[in-house]
Amino acid sequence: MDKILTQFAVMLISFFAVWFLLSRIDYLQEGDVQKFAKESEKKLSELILKSIKATNDEVEDKRIKAALDSIKSRLCEGMDLDCDKIKLHIIRSSDINAFALPDNNMVIYTGLLDYAGNAEEVAGVMAHEIGHMQKNHVMKKLVKEIGMEMLFTIAGGDAGNDIARETAKVLSSSAFDRKQEREADKFAVECLAKTNIDPQPLSNLFFRLSRKDEVPEEMAWISTHPDSKERAAEIIKLRKEYTFTPRDILHTPWKDVQRYLSKKQEDSDDKSDKDAEVIDEEEIEVSADTTAAE
Fold it and tell me: For the residues of 237-265, what is the DSSP string, one character each?
């Protein structure tokens, strides 16, 4: 009997010891995230962006950038955010993806712009990624997946390009946890509604993602956003909590933006089709409600 009681006591002590240590790890991670954000986030983001741009071109076209800057401005207006702190990077890639980086950088692949059914779907994705930024999910994810020691090594310039590329891969192709995704979804719906953009298209996008048999192979966003069907339904519920009057984001139909983007791709590859429809650059107009960045 004494032996059983002793074993029970040891198990109980061990349980509380493990619980205490785990609680301390969570606390230290939060503190480390804050410390790292102040010291090295900008440098880390620069290295990750460099690794991405080493294999993919960045879209520098002013009119494509103006269209997305217009959407960003509307979203920032709704949540009273400093728009200048959120930096957009449009990357030429067939992958249907967008993701947040440290230091409030957002990468948007042209594959997502091609796949989106309208500007409101793009706005929903951007609002979701801004939610990850505002909740500090990006650094928390890197601390969990990469570790503080390795992050300091990368930011200090002591790590090779391969490690920087792997870090970029973590952010672009692995999921946040369920709680973080729910928080980003909730932020997105609030952000969209407050700036008079209907959250319904974001729900529509998630529902399309849930139909995996209809999703292209390049759909990277689905791997980072699991349970899309359930989340589509939750967005509809959240939408009912807000009153808003939908306003167009762009004067130009989204299809025209996509055709113009496709035309620029053809030009850059020197494979323009003589019979392709020529789109006047002046046709892409941003909303009069916002001031797009030049």
Answer: HHHTT-------SBSS-HHHHHHHHHHHH
Domain extents in the chain: 37-283
- Tell me the C-alpha distance between 86 and 68, whole Å: 12
User: What gap in Å lies between CA 294 and CA 289, rounded to an integer?
Assistant: 16
Give pLDDT tens digits along the chain (294 positions): 555 545 544 454 444 444 344 344 444 455 555 555 556 788 888 888 988 999 999 999 999 999 999 999 999 998 999 999 999 999 999 988 999 999 999 999 999 999 999 999 999 999 999 999 999 999 888 888 877 777 777 777 665 667 777 788 778 776 788 889 999 999 999 999 999 999 999 999 988 877 754 555 545 455 555 577 888 899 999 999 999 999 999 988 999 999 999 888 877 765 444 444 555 555 566 654 554 444
DSSP state of 199: S
118-138 exposure pattern, b = at least 16 Cβ within 10 A, e = fewer:
bbbbbbbbbbbbbbbbbbebb
Do residues 89 and 58 lie in contact, with contact meaning Cβ atoms separated by under 8 Å? yes
Quote the tokens at residue 17.
């010891």
What Å distances lie between residue 18 and 5, 22, 60, 135, 252, CA to CA?
20, 6, 52, 28, 59
User: What is this structure's pTM?
Assistant: 0.77
